[in-house]
């Protein structure tokens, strides 16, 4: 890229698929990114925007005029435009809506009415609907009058006279059935429509479980309001999974890999601050035992082992729970079993590794008492890690706090504090101050 | 569940969708799980198996007879059967293959020939192919002769006389076009077919970028061998994302949330053992500075802060890189930029928090020298964390070691060792032993 002349780069860019251009932009450090973006024009521009991750998209859009934005919006999917407008300042949103034509605006306002993370925010309004009393032959002729059928259309949606959802007619069925049959005879009614208020992660689970390509969305009166397609669901799945991964390290799933230095530093610094509180809490526990450490310096050598093993065991439990919650595997009935299992796992692994470490430490420091204290502290800390690693995410989930985000910090605080307290406390009891 | 009689449970089970039964099994602790599984019979059994996560599926299957397995296999998708057979012991696999009819066997052997994590392992052989010289009218009549069109068929695949891939005819196009046109006139040739050896994560990226529902798979001679559908791709996306999350805590993405106690303990213990090595390495660094700690006990209080801040900062960088590698955002050209950025971010955040902590420590312990040593050690450790958090996954990736799995342990070892070494080393230089 660096070598070729700008004209060359431009020619190559304009020949690429929009999705590939978006990928290229996402993989490019900031300085080159702006140069590349300037070269993209017209229809390609809107198609590339449609493929970009939300953070980058917002960055590029915030540099544009409202009238240009309105023009752009006409070429994007409803749900994507709604997402974009919701991220822009209110003033800009109104200007963009004003600059749109009547039809685009009213369709868009319908989608924007629903929260971004619900079925309503995911849906498009480009449905093809038919009545149940038609014959397949009529349906085929009706379709032929269309210029084109929207992408990802695997079913025609059967609705009643007052627009209530009735069933689905798969194109697969339409193509192999006798044209003289009626829609009513051939339609599928087993697939329940998606309520417009359903959270997007539940929508994704339904798609995954049932292998849908598209699904109809209905309002509280059973009226068809739109449809959700698998491409948007794949984005939800990717984002949710990303969310768990990134949150565990205190970052957002929208984080841009190639964000500039200052932006990156500012974002990460918050997490460091929060963790500093954890670290200082742990340090003040140690501080209370200065006398004991002065007497037996080996304690200072061994104490990080107790804390770190607890942290690792706790993180494992936490990760399993965070994933299980995200997959919808956790219910009232199976929670207790999980907490008990984690306690038992903590006990078993605690005993095994406590024995190993205790024997090693006793030999190195020639002090069997020290080994005993170390072993006891490790068992206590690994059981604590298992139980709190399981209880914490369950409790946070109930308090509607994201367990992936907050779980790790609180857990480490617990395992550090309990680890140091158990080890140094027992040591004080044994050696005195 | 616990209250109702078994007959009630059974009646409810048999009315549920297979995907919902699979979800129920995955959310149930082991004892009840076996009871539920016993109740599922006939066709439902194979459909539920198809929806189960691999670990659970294997558990249920390993209790079955080869002849039952062969019968089961006939009702599942090729790629799923191939996956299952590859996990079973070779002896059982051969018995199952022997018990199958000729046609099933040869189709299956074709899919099993390819590795599970390539396009070949993901594909099904249920394609509908047509010739380019037909008219759409003939195609429509040809389709009507089918009993049914395979699920997730959004395109008919156009092939030449010798089975080479030529293009795609979307059903959407077929339904709205003039039936007198030829396939050649209306087909899409822009979508490149997927080579059978393409890794599954690359297949998933292609699907995500291009919003495909299905895609044709060709061998090295351009001959059509099958097609991949979005439902299997969604599983790959979910598994890959899961893999990053679970690996960071030393677990497998196939880990069953409700695995029994001993199985769970055995699996987790390996990771604890590996981390114990880390912890002991860090402890031996501290051990070398016993003299200094005896002189200034405050060092023992403050040293975990240095190590933990380094660990957190490094984990953030590592997580960003692991995700970027999984998304395919990293190339030769942008690596250096990333490493430099992470070093700068480490420097900036290091200076900020070093200043805060140093002032606080100086006041608490009434020793400005101690604050200075702490600040210097923190800056050194945060820069190290940034650089090694970025370099490590890149290096591991090049060595074909999974960065999500190995990265965390090595990184913590580095930040612990550098943290303790910098802090205690500088302290020794300042205070003497």
Give a verbal description of the structure.
The relative contact order of chain A is 0.07. In chain A, helix 11 links the parallel strand 1 and strand 2. With 433 residues, chain A is mostly helical. A 3-stranded mixed beta sheet of chain A has the order 1-2-3. In chain A, strands 4-5-6 form a 3-stranded mixed beta sheet. In chain A, helix 16 packs parallel to helix 21 and helix 18 packs parallel to helix 20. Chain A folds into 3 domains: 112 residues, MgtE N-terminal fold; 117 residues, CBS-domain (Roll); 171 residues, Tetracycline Repressor, domain 2 (Orthogonal Bundle). In chain A, 68% of the residues lie in helices and 6% in strands. The model of chain A has no long low-confidence stretch (mean pLDDT 87). Chain A has 21 helices and 6 strands. The radius of gyration of chain A is 29 Å and the shape is elongated. At the A-B interface, helix 2, helix 11, helix 12, helix 14 and helix 15 of A face helix 2, helix 11, helix 12, helix 14 and helix 15 of B.
What separation lies between the terminal Cα atoms of chain A?
67 Å
What number of domains of chain A?
3
Shape of chain A: elongated
What is the alpha-carbon Rg of chain A in Å? 29 Å
Give me the oligomer status: homodimer
The CATH class label of the largest domain in chain A is Mainly Alpha
Give the low-confidence spans of chain A.
Answer: none
Q: What is the CATH T-level topology of the largest domain in chain A? A: Tetracycline Repressor, domain 2
Count the beta strands of chain A: 6
* Mean pLDDT over the residues of chain A: 87
Main interface by residue count: A-B, 120 and 121 residues
At the fourth CATH level, what is the homologous superfamily of the largest domain in chain A? SLC41 divalent cation transporters, integral membrane domain
Number of helices of chain A: 21
The SSE string of chain A, one letter per element, is: HHHHHHHHHHEHEEHHEHEEHHHHHHH
User: Fraction of residues of chain A in helices?
Assistant: 55-70%
């Amino acid at each position: 890229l660096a070598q070729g002349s700008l004209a060359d780069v431009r020619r190559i860019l304009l020949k690429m698929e929009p999705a590939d251009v978006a990928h290229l932009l996402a993989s490019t450090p900031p300085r080159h990114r702006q140069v590349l973006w300037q070269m993209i024009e017209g229809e390609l521009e809107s198609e590339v925007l449609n493929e970009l991750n939300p953070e980058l998209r917002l960055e590029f859009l915030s540099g544009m005029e409202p009238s240009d934005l309105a023009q752009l919006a006409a070429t994007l999917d409803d749900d994507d435009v709604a997402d974009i407008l919701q991220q822009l300042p209110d003033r800009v949103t109104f200007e963009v809506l004003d600059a749109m034509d009547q039809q685009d605006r009213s369709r868009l306002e319908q989608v924007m009415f629903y929260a971004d993370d619900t079925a309503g925010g995911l849906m498009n309004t480009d449905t093809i609907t038919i009545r149940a009393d038609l014959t397949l032959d009529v349906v085929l002729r009706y379709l032929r009058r269309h210029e084109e059928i929207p992408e990802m259309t695997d079913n025609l949606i059967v609705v009643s006279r007052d627009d209530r959802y009735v069933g689905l007619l798969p194109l697969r069925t339409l193509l192999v059935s006798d044209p003289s049959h009626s829609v009513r005879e051939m339609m599928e009614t087993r697939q329940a429509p998606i309520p417009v208020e359903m959270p997007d992660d539940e929508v994704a689970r339904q798609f995954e479980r049932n292998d849908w390509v598209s699904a109809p969305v209905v309002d509280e009166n059973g009226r068809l309001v739109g449809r959700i397609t698998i491409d948007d669901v794949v984005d939800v799945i990717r984002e949710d999974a990303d969310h768990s991964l990134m949150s565990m390290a205190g970052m957002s799933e929208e984080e841009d890999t190639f964000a500039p230095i200052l932006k990156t530093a500012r974002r990460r610094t918050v997490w460091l601050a929060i963790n500093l509180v954890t670290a200082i809490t742990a340090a003040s526990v140690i501080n209370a035992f200065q006398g004991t450490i002065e007497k037996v310096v080996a304690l200072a050598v061994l104490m990080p082992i107790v804390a770190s093993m607890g942290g690792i065991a706790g993180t494992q439990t936490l990760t399993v729970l965070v994933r299980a919650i995200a997959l919808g595997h956790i219910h009232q009935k199976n929670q207790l079993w999980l907490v008990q299992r984690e306690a038992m796992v903590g006990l078993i692994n605690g005993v095994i590794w406590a024995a190993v470490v205790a024997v090693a430490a006793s030999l190195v420091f020639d002090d069997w008492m020290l080994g005993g204290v170390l072993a006891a502290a490790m068992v206590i800390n690994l059981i604590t890690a298992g139980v709190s690693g399981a209880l914490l995410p369950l409790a946070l989930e109930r308090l509607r706090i994201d367990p992936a985000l907050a779980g790790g910090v609180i857990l480490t605080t617990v395992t550090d504090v309990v680890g140091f307290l158990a080890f140094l406390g027992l040591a004080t009891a044994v050696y005195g101050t």
